[in-house]
User: Fold this.
Amino acid sequence: MSSRRRFLAGLGATTLAAPFCRLLTGEARAGGVGPKRLLIMATPNGTVPDRLWPTGGERDFAFGPGSIWEPLEPVRDQVTLLRGLQFHSATNHEGGMAAMLTNGDGPESLGRSVDQVVASHIGMSTRLQSLELGVQTSAWGGGIQTRMVYGGPGYMLPPDDDPSSVYDRLFGDVVLGDVEAAKLRDRRSRVIDANRAELLDLQSRLGAVEQAKLGDHLDALADMERAMDTVLSCEPGERPDTGWVYDNDSFPVIGEAQRSLAVQALACGVTNVVTLQWAHTVSPVVFTWLGLSDGHHTLSHSDPTNVVGQDNYVLAERWFAEQFRTLVDDLASREDPEYGGTLLDTTLVVWAQEMGDGRLHVCTDVPWVLAGATDVLDGGRYLDLGPTNHAHLLVSICRAFGMDLDTFGNESAGRGGLGGVFA
Amino acid sequence: MSTRLFALALLACGTPTSKRAADGAPDTAAPSTPASSSASTLTGAGSTTDTECVAGPGPRLVRRLTHAEYGASVRALLGTELAPEASFAPDLTVEGYANDASLAVSSLLAEQYRAAAEELAAAADLDAVVPCDTANRPCADAFIGDWGLRAYRRPLTDSERTSLLELYDEVAAEDGFEEGIRWVITAALQSPAFLYRSELGARTAGEVFTLNDWELATALAFGVTGGPPDADLLDVAAGGRLSTPDGLQVELDRLLADPRAPERVADSVAAMLQLERLPQVVRDGSVYAELTTEIRGAMTEETRRLTADVAAAGGGFGELLTTDHTFVTAELATFYELPAPTVGADGWGRVSLPPERAGGLLSQGAVLATHALPTSSSPIHRGVMVRERLLCQHLPPPPADLNISPPPVDPSLSTRERYAAHSDVPECAGCHLMIDPVGFGFEHFDGIGRYREMDGVHPVDASGEVVASPSSDGLFVGIGELASLIVDDAEDCWVRRSARTLTGLELPECDVALFADETGAAGGSLLDTWQGWVQLPHFRERVGGSDERDVPLGDGRWTAPDPDPDLSEPDDTGLPEGVRFEETVQTDWGAGYCMDVVVVNGTAEPVVWSIELALADELSSSWSSTWTELDVGVWRVEGEGWNSELEPGAETAFGYCALR
Assistant:
């Protein structure tokens, strides 16, 4: 879009002079602050169990040569590998995608995905309550296959697939004078107030379903208001220019840009909760940059007799493991401006998947990886939890952020958290 | 099972649902029904004849503008060329259509609306939109009244008008008239009155609400032209003339003569066939270098032109499926190896296709290239395309535990031979007999839609068969015969898809049936779809709760009826206590259905599970389970080697398909 949009997005960086950060940069972090941020990355189409699971025990595990997780070896002390998670009562691509971060609907999570539940707890003071980033998630439009973040039962929140648009939304790049900025802020505020009044009036004429729909709009207005009242104080970096968002060959470039924005958003205190969704379940993305010519989903169904097909799928999965490793490295290399230590220390990082064995379309033995959150998460471990409903992990994630929750999603998946993962 | 499913199909009648209302939750546990498991489960033919139901009004609602409607609206209001909606977050898409009635405004979209409104207002040519020469407050007030009526598609209320005028006053005091007007525009473009189409009406009897003239004008305009009501239509609405059938008919006929009406048909057909995916489908450059960005764009335009041409000429969906002509540019003709066309000033010309290549939509490059693989054609993708897109029949995804590895390219075998394995393996046959023999009919067209006599060194065999479809069953050779075979079922499907295009809802079966009858009575052409639509009770009426009207927040109620509680009771399964199973309908295409079943070991001991099931229908396939028929229609289902034993707390899933 034009410079006008960047100009407007730049407002937040200049209106208020007070620094957001407590500027503990370089100082030692006070111990035991616990995780302050959540970053969830997800990759699709399941795995190849024979080519994934390490050998050995909890601490002395070893990645097989050429195995999917082998690229994590350089960060093995930072990651916790989870085996044996199952999604309660979910199966296949769509079931897995819908359940992955929600475990269905329930009285405590209210149909929301875990990032949104956590954001409702730790996202209220930041410019954005949460940030949803995607890498070629939406060429098929929104739907159960292409969405993983839920703001309520059946209410899917779209990720932004365009790094330059994300950048404009987060940072902008043009500075306004204080008078102009204040004027603009007042007028925007007026517009929001007027729209809120109209929405409330309209809402009062409607039935329950439609009231909920307009309730989402009202929530969005509140988010916009809060965004106007908070500022960031950091160098936003270069505006990415990755071209057409659905160009298959640009998948790695877009992914790199979104990953950088995810880290930058956390470092600048724009938000405390980020999701980064790579493609979507059943995605046909072709890993041409690895020399492959079949789609990711097609390759996921290669049976063991199709040696080339399965090898190629493992190559693609290893590439995703490299992306996770890079994400961990990036967070480890950034100081936490607010709490000290590194961003990895204060961020709980989750690599989620929607299925276990992709060829079988099952949501059992689904491989998830945790990293960071060093106050509560001891890295360098390979834990076989199974079979355990992943609802317990979702409960534990919320509890790690200080939430008092006993179930997540569908209650019949069981109560309580997961022992032995978080301190 | 069939009894239960039958009852559930009845339930779908009388409950128009948006995706959100239908789905409620991404709940993976509750037993769901064909009516509620997904928006894709309106059963195909058959269920309407089983039931006595009466078409009725839809729920009162507000429908957020689709991104396309937003774009058409701002361009009509401001005369701008800008298209900010192109970068809006993609909306929920159901059956290819991004107009579900549940669409809401997320935080991301709210910010995008704001950025777009500010950008549009800043760029607006005020000379063109402001109705008076004098830059003063009365002029601003007149602008708010006149332009506001067009933006909100109804006269502004006093409070709306006051609010905008106050905003104008404040801004104008600081920055002058023009800036004041620009902020009025900025605010109006973010107002719910602009962003949502009202389908609320006023109570006329009991729970029935009748839409007012402004609401009818809005429905008519967006329905037929994809854009907001024009000045003439607003005048007619102001005169109250749309409330009468005759008055409405005059305006409908006027709009149907607008070139945008056939264009709108083209939009709908493109959505039906998922052609928006064509720009980004991946083709291996070493095999299909010819499928350039330009050719993809030309293919999309080709299908648009063909559809609009058939619609404008009074053709029906059947003609669109079977016609033997198309439109090409010189470049596209070269690509297809067709004779050079006689082109008009716009570079396009109409050509007749030789019989072996004629098949209307089925021979369109856009359709064929969208539904293929990176390095080859794909009988499966094209067979599924016919079943799901053109016949509205939903097939299950490939089940678990089968070798569903796609056949590797093998030069010694034709594509057809490579895929034959799917239909030879018993576990695959249940579904693939419905898919592959349809897809084989397309084998004269390669992965990018070019005609071929040879598939590598193998002469093409394009013979196929349609089975288990209401009125399309039969043998055929090539797409021409396939098109003729499926034409009736495809026309039914078109009506079903049109219902979604026009209402954003899954209409109950009885409404769809009435829609089909009324469209047929009007002549049955593509343009007659709208004639059928305006005859539906749904067009003029809505239902709302008894206290739903200008009531305080929280008092309104219109909710979908609960599913029959009896239907969520599991069958007597003979399972040991603590072991339970949960069933969900995976898909239901009328002639058959597939079920997912999750087995949960809730005991403290490992168990080897087995279930006894009564199944009145014919089992066609199963996965992750072995089935033994104990008596007629009574089956024992057990796990396979890998999932027969469940540890405490463990779950597994199996599934099956059956034909009615």
In short: Chain A touches chain B through 110 residues (CB under 8 Å).
